[in-house]
Amino acid sequence: xxxxxxxxxxxxxxxxxxxxxxxxxxxxxxxxxxxxxxxxxxxxxxxxxxxxxxxxxxxxxxxxxxxxxxxxxxxxxxxxxxxxxxxxxxxxxxxxxxxxxxxxxxxxxxxxxxxxxxxxxxxxxxxxxxxxxxxxxxxxxxxxxxxxxxxxxxxxxxxxxxxxxxxxxxxxxxxxxxxxxxxxxxxxxxxxxxxxxxxxxxxxxxxxxxxxxxxxxxxxxxxxxxxxxxxxxxxxxxxxxxxxxxxxxxxxxxxxxxxxxxxxxxxxxxxxxxxxxxxxxxxxxxxxxxxxxxxxxxxxxxxxxxxxxxxxxxxxxxxxxxxxxxxxxxxxxxxxxxxxxxxxxxxxxxxxxxxxxxxxxxxxxxxxxxxxxxxxxxxxxxxxxxxxxxxxxxxxxxxxxxxxxxxxxxxxxxxxxxxxxxxxxxxxxxxxxxxxxxxxxxxxxxxxxxxxxxxxxxxxxxxxxxxxxxxxxxxxxxxxxxxxxxxxxxxxxxxxxxxxxxxxxxxxxxxxxxxxxxxxxxxxxxxxxxxx
Length: 532
Hints:
Number of strands: 15
Largest sheet: 5 strands, antiparallel
Distance between the termini: 62 Å
Strand content: 15-25%
Number of helices: 15
Helix content: 40-55%
């Protein structure tokens, strides 16, 4: 199997190849322009020299006499050597040479077939092959004093004398190109090292494999996963998230925002992004969803949040059962603590010989507990609600808060699929009331009163406390941030109440209690989701 090239090798080859291609293309163009410019300059110099020679009186006299004396030949030769021209030829109207660098060719016809235009009075630059070879020529007619054409002057530079100068410029251009190639190689090495550092030393094939693995893993897990930027733009979501939120996979084009997907919950999910949320329920896409939030960090910097979600199915049911077991364990702990104190008292009474007092204490405790259970079962026929109230009673007792279930309460057995929501609503309201009552313990005796009613078309849960009341409006109370807690689940108590109320199509009213604090009344339609 052929081993793939490293990133550094690829960049060096790509950048060097691109630079060589550019050098070849632009070098050819520059070389062609340079050659053309050099030829143009040579032709203009030849034409200028030809004009100067044609205007000399001795040249005019020689053409009129059809003979060039030795002085003219010597003068023209010195002028040719001084200007660097390869030849200066003077011919008559019959194109016979009167002056030529090679004396053996004087009197012979001019070669190149490019002199007729000069004899017509035109001054021009031409390129032709003469007796000395291919040359660039400047041709000018010679006029008499009367203006008649009496001959012509041809000044030329052989191509073989121009070529070394062109090669010299070409060599400079080549050296400059090679310098650029060397610079591009060093630049590509530096760039490749920076790029490799930025991608954690991975090679392109490794990055591609990791990307494919990431896609496979994301679309294999049964939890919905959404990676969100700090500003709420969805960076990545897997197929399971699309299924849970009922989104078309093709819709995700990198411009989808969390507000579009979860409009009612995006503000909460994007607030306090440095704090994780270990799991809470919300109502979205027509279903109950359990969602968690983790901080997304890249190179030690917070770069958004990672949301994980699953619908409330068998796994969530087991989680709820576990939560209930934890509550039951807490209840047992409270009762154990309470009864340990009573057992210590009983032990002390027995050791003191106060048997009558010990029997009386046992009777009072038994009668109080039985009366409490009898009172609950007499007014509350639903076992889940009765168990919840009993557990909260013991919790309040441990917190030294008077907990009262109103004698006006009346709740028959409830046959609904959403009993978990009802228990969660009532439990959160009571927990908030207990905390509010405890916060105001320095100002009034702490107390919580619960009233339940199923008269009419609604189930009514009424929870009152002796706290300071609620100064905020209803919309603020339902925001996740409305809380004084600081743990990972802070601010979601009333938010959960709102979520479950939305699922049950219920409403909540806030008022003032005669206990001194707030009174929260929940109204839930009796005919909600019934058991099949």
